[in-house]
Specification:
The protein has 305 residues and is of the alpha/beta class. It has twelve helices and nine strands. The N and C termini lie far apart (43 Å). The structure holds NADP nicotinamide-adenine-dinucleotide phosphate.
């Protein structure tokens, strides 16, 4: 594939940014990649790993001359970064972000984007529970969705170039409105994470009663919760603080359903439980059919249950 942007600046050098760098390098999508991270340690690790051509101490230096600037910091840090880079952006450049929440990021970043610079918010629906510059890998976005969320009237060529970059990195690209995004992600990602955090927290409390049995007999269901609940605390704190309305709306519905199931268990209503679980099983089939997960037992891990 040919070069899409002559110079790409990565602001934040964690899981997402380092994976983008590896993928762009693998496929020759960027002429040059610059980057910066908040800590000297992350900058040093990035130099050592060599996935950026140049690592700078400040975001202002990193964006100098960049054709694409990617904001890959926690959602709560986006505004400060946008404020810092704004005076240094090249006319005609595109600024994008990879934040997991969109309304809050658009409101935090949008006002800082100067005239003549294109802002195309984005969100790759790909991740792991690992973070930092060592955690990235080129295949992270393979066959995953990347959503682009441009405001109406955004320059079409800027959107198309960014879409081409994500496709080059292996992703499928779709466009969506920002509020719809925040609601959809509250259902598919944000609330499931909160539930996993809660379940692991409950088990941890219980562990004190039952000694180490919760860990020792950790079966597939709980083990999958612990993987999700190991995700970066800063990132997830910011997700909930910044997608308040949608997550509260979905959590309200969730607790209503949970109470209904609780009642079915108490009253011995097996039909209700069976009908409910039959309906949910079909959703899993849909996800597998859409190519978004493996049909192999235990996610193909081949381990014991
Ligand atoms: P990460 O691995 O934790 O990396 C975050 C980067 O941001 C690090 O370089 C960190 O610098 C820097 N940073 C942290 N706080 C900062 C601050 N206050 N000011 C400036 N820089 C700061 O995170 P990530 O997983 O790549 O996530 C980055 C963004 O992608 C987030 O907005 C997240 O919502 C979004 N996202 C994440 C996933 C996922 O599953 N992980 C998926 C899709 C989208 P130091 O290393 O020096 O601390």
């Amino acid at each position: 594939m040919s070069v899409i942007y002559n110079r790409v600046a990565l602001i934040g050098l964690g899981l997402i940014a380092s994976s983008m760098a590896h993928a762009m390098r693998r496929d020759g999508l960027a002429g040059e990649i610059t980057g910066t991270a908040r800590s000297a340690e992350s900058r040093e690790i990035t130099r050592e790993l060599g996935f950026c051509d140049a690592v700078f101490d400040t975001a202002a230096e990193a964006v100098n001359g960049a054709d694409l600037v990617v904001l890959a910091v926690p959602v709560g840090a986006m505004e400060a970064v946008a404020r810092e880079i704004a005076p240094h952006l090249k006319p005609g450049a595109t600024v994008t972000d990879v934040g997991s929440v969109k309304r809050a990021v658009v409101e935090a970043v949008g006002p800082h984007i100067p005239e003549g610079v294109h802002f195309v918010p984005g969100h790759p629906l790909a991740g792991t529970e690992h973070s930092g510059p060592r955690s990235g890998f080129a295949e992270l976005f393979e066959n995953r969705w990347c959503l682009l969320l441009p405001e109406p009237g955004t320059d079409r060529a800027a959107i198309d170039a960014l879409a081409k970059l994500w496709r080059g990195m292996g992703a499928n690209v779709d466009e969506m409105g920002i509020d719809h995004h925040d609601l959809v992600l509250a259902v598919t990602s944000h609330c499931p994470h909160l539930i996993a955090y809660t379940m692991v927290g409950v088990a941890d409390d219980l562990r004190r009663v039952t000694d180490s049995e919760v860990i020792k007999y950790s079966a597939a269901g709980f083990r999958d919760f612990t993987r999700i609940a190991a995700s970066d605390p800063t990132m997830w704190r910011d997700v909930f603080l910044n997608n308040k309305e949608a997550t509260l709306e979905i959590l309200g519905r969730f607790t209503e359903e949970l109470f209904a199931l609780q009642r079915a268990i108490r009253t011995g209503d097996g039909d209700q439980l069976h009908d409910y679980f039959t309906r949910t099983r079909a959703i899993r089939r849909g996800i597998v059919e859409a190519g978004q997960d493996t049909d192999a037992p235990d996610f193909g891990r081949g381990g014991t249950r």
